Amino acid sequence: MTKEVTSNNFAAVHKAIEQIVYTLSGRIFSYAEHVPLDRYLKQWYESGQKNGFAEQVEFHGVETRSGAAGFLLGSYTSAVSSSGVYSLLTASSCLPLLRPMLSYTHRLYSGSKPLVLHVAALSYEANEFHVDNASLLDFAYTSDFATISSFALEDAAHISLASTLAAKAGPVVHAYEYDTLTTTFVPNEASVSASKTVECFHSFVPAEGVTANAIAALEHVNKHFGTKYAPVEYYGPATATQVIVAFGSKELQKARALASRTSNVGVAAIRVFPVIEESFARVIPKTCKKLVVASQTKLTALDTHSTFFSVVFATAASALPKVQVVEARYSDVDGISESVLAAELDLSSELSAVSASSLVETTFRIWEEDSVESLANALALVHASRDVEQNVVYRTLYDNQLFLGLRVSNVQVSKSSAKLPGLTDEEPKADVTILTSEKIANHVRVLANVADRSLCIVYTAVNPADAAKKLPAVFVKDVVEKDIRLVFANPNEQTHALNLVLLAAYFVQLKRNGADSTSVPSLKKNFATLGWDADEFDAVVKDLEGQAEPVKLNPDVLKELQLPEDELPTSAKENSFEANTVKELEEEVLPQSGNLNTVAKQLIFKEAYGQQELPRPNAPAKICTVRVKSNKRLTPRDYNRNIFHIEFDIGESGLTYDIGEALGVYGVNNKANVEKFIADYGLKANEVIYVPSLTHPGNWESNTVFQALSHTLDIFGKPTKQFYQTMAEYAADPKEKRQLEVLISPAGAADLQRRSEVDMLTYADLLLEFKSAKMTAVDLARHVPVLKRREYSISSSQRKHKDAIHLLVVVVGWTDPMGRDRYGQCSHYLSQLQIGDTVCVAVKPSVMKLPDSPKKPIVMAGLGTGLAPFRAFLQYKEWQWSQGIASGDVILYLGSRTQREEYLYGEDWEAYHAAGLLTHIGQAFSRDQPYKIYIQDVMRSTKALLKKALIDEGGSFYLCGPTWPLPEITSVLEEVIQSSSSEPVDTRKVIEQWKEDRRFVIEVY
Ligand SMILES: Cc1cc2nc3c(=O)[nH]c(=O)nc-3n(C[C@H](O)[C@H](O)[C@H](O)COP(=O)(O)OP(=O)(O)OC[C@H]3O[C@@H](n4cnc5c(N)ncnc54)[C@H](O)[C@@H]3O)c2cc1C
């Protein structure tokens, strides 16, 4: 059978997922700052493409920081459109930051707005990406989200779709593994067209309850696409006595590879989590005596059961009480291995020799500079196009740190008719190694993990006669010692040199296996099928005959080799998913030191140096500089909370804003703290350092050390675990090194947590504590992350204050266990600003908008600084009044601790009330009486007023401030809705409708 091969066969799975997301979604929120999970979505959105319902799509790329999901939540509660879906894309490592907000989802959920989280099971630890299903399942389980998992490229589109259908009954996580999905070759994969997707979505009738609906969703997809997905899928003999229970593609791959080498082990793959008891009991063979649960935990939680194990254990205890359940536990950083599973299985005899690696005909490893076109795709295509039933898998990884960016691919070709489950190993021994430059071998020992007498093809201009002298010494040593057959491809002599390398790999490999030139015609046909120039084929093969002669290296060369002192790494690390983009900086990509004279020259001769002065060169958004006009504390000096009102003069900055919008503020670190750190750490405040610009590639930002520590680096922020690791690498004192290593190991997890959550140590604290891990200013610029901006609701309207912008801010503060007064970075910075000081800001759009008709009543509920946007609302209404535009009822509920200390903007409210613009003020000062009165209590006592405004007159409701009162306030509104009818009312549905109509808007943080 001839396979049809097109480049689509290798379509990245992410595209498959993104296609489903784009087709079905009305709004897409991408929290994928460091991982390219939204590449295609962005392209389609920017080109104005509509979704499958022929509607405009909203796409938001959102920074991932604490409370980040508030943006999604705000939009979710106030959306008008009912068609389409809410989709969120992120990696599992970001879920802890999104969790606080997303935990409100259930309360606000509406089946008419399905919410799907497409989560790549991915974390970054110890300089590398790892599969992280542990965080994902923890999040989903504790937040009560159903999880549906893709296992491979083949099912990614279908499962994305099924997850979206399932979300018609409740929020869903679609889990997938980034690496497996992007690289497995699937011939003739049936495409999932947009029209079929929409048809499948429309024709689905949700079942009652999340679990039943997840099953119904899979069945519906099966019916549409002829697939056989189930909540639990079983692979293996019907008489298995032991079953491995696994979640995730890597786990499944390893479990199935191991099971295939035994006669009595099966694999239960969990597709829907929490595990559905009946589905589980149905697939486990009656003969099964033992379940081995592949249980991934975070490295920091290796001492405890994983959520996955606990849930499987509980399910099995109820469904299969006689079956023993054991845990095969491993960390996300170590990853699953056959030996972890085998240790828990009762394997009476040796594992059968039919291992996955015996199915492999050839393993190719290609080392490429990441700036050249990838050979791996092409190589895999050539093999996949042969006239035999054969299977090809490949996996590409990017190491941005080696040789300014390397791409390493392992391509495995199976023996005739064999189907490979995936790569047989992370680092299989290569039969053919290809290097696109001999220089790569200066940075990594490319022949460390190859078969003896295997083939190595190097793309080089080095003359074969000079090979021993000109090639890297470690490489030469390996060639000689492993008796490698070394073949050179000369870039200058070939027009299609890269294709030649590719062809060489194939052709020489054929020869090695004793194949003769009769295989060549079919090879030629395959090249033509791929759209390559078949006419050149004969010429290339002729050249190849000459070149395929191995380069001879006399073993005596070993005696003269000058080997480097430091050992080279033997493999690449996956620390990126994309090529390194800062090539122009060549070896200079790291921050560097400079001096003030150079900077002075650059400033004076700007044009000659291409110099530009930017307020915050590293800020991604369009930013403006504004000047402080007034800064007034609103709470008494002796009160323990500092809440203040700050006004900025917009001046000539060109900044404009709308009511309800927020201001992003780029805070500056406290001057005294920066100076103290510079002195304590022994830095030179005026030393100049150049940092490669993130926003203007190819350019440098010059800063003095003082500037960098004040404006750019989050030196007083919370250190990441990665930073502890970096410190350990720097530590010269073995005791300190050991101490740091323990802190990042499982044994130090509790200690590390205490440092972070109780002591709340900063980067500066750590640097001063571990003195031997001394960093230069340049090192700090490399390793300490950049400060993030903070957002504040604008409390003024530009209709009233044309040239000003107002904020209401509470200073975040606490005393740490060392007795030091500590403050939130930005709120404290703002509180200290003096009149005339300048601040860098950017306006951020918001969902807080007034109803189109000014006559419609508005009901506002604000807690603490949550009152800010309502002052802007009233100022806007005041302007409307002045224009003769009549207003409907304006009702304000405000909540804070005490009236004496925290009656925020009290004078404004009373003035508006006296003028008749604000028709009602409901005040809840929780601590002003012996018992607590909260905002919801005050609202409850004025239900008639609420009914008139919201139900009789169709007004809008707004809530801003902290999240905690949201459920209670929603309950009051439900009571109001019910009170308007003598019949039982589906109050949640009414609230849903209000949200649809943008009559129920929240902004919580
Ligand atoms: C849309 C929106 C509107 C907002 N509107 C307002 C508003 O009108 N008024 C207002 O006051 N706020 C508002 N906020 C909140 C505001 O953006 C900030 O989050 C808030 O001011 C705190 O920022 P900070 O820099 O002062 O504190 P941060 O430095 O960010 O500290 C915040 C918390 O992080 C923790 N932390 C800090 N350092 C460490 C450490 N080294 N180790 C361990 N933990 C640490 C502490 O728990 C601390 O309380 C709004 C937020 C959003 C999203």
From TrEMBL:
GO biological process: sulfate assimilation
Cross-referenced InterPro entries: CysJ-like_FAD-binding, FAD-bd_FR_type, Flavoprot_Pyr_Nucl_cyt_Rdtase, FNR_nucleotide-bd, NADPH_Cyt_P450_Rdtase_alpha, OxRdtase_FAD/NAD-bd, Pyrv_flavodox_OxRed_cen, Riboflavin_synthase-like_b-brl
CDD domains: CyPoR_like
Enzyme type, top EC level: oxidoreductase
Annotated FAD-binding FR-type domain residues: 621-852
GO-annotated molecular function: flavin adenine dinucleotide binding; FMN binding; oxidoreductase activity; sulfite reductase (NADPH) activity
One Gene Ontology CC term in the entry: cytosol
Cofactor: FAD; FMN
Biological pathway: Sulfur metabolism; hydrogen sulfide biosynthesis; hydrogen sulfide from sulfite (NADPH route): step 1/1
Protein EC: 1.8.1.2
Reactions that this protein is recorded to catalyse: hydrogen sulfide + 3 NADP(+) + 3 H2O = sulfite + 3 NADPH + 4 H(+)
Keywords: Electron transport, FAD, Flavoprotein, FMN, NADP, Oxidoreductase, Transport
Cited PANTHER family: NITRIC OXIDE SYNTHASE-RELATED (PTHR19384), SULFITE REDUCTASE [NADPH] FLAVOPROTEIN COMPONENT (PTHR19384:SF109)
Protein task: This enzyme catalyzes the 6-electron reduction of sulfite to sulfide. This is one of several activities required for the biosynthesis of L-cysteine from sulfate.
UniProt name for this protein: assimilatory sulfite reductase (NADPH)
Organism listed in the record: Schizosaccharomyces japonicus (strain yFS275 / FY16936)
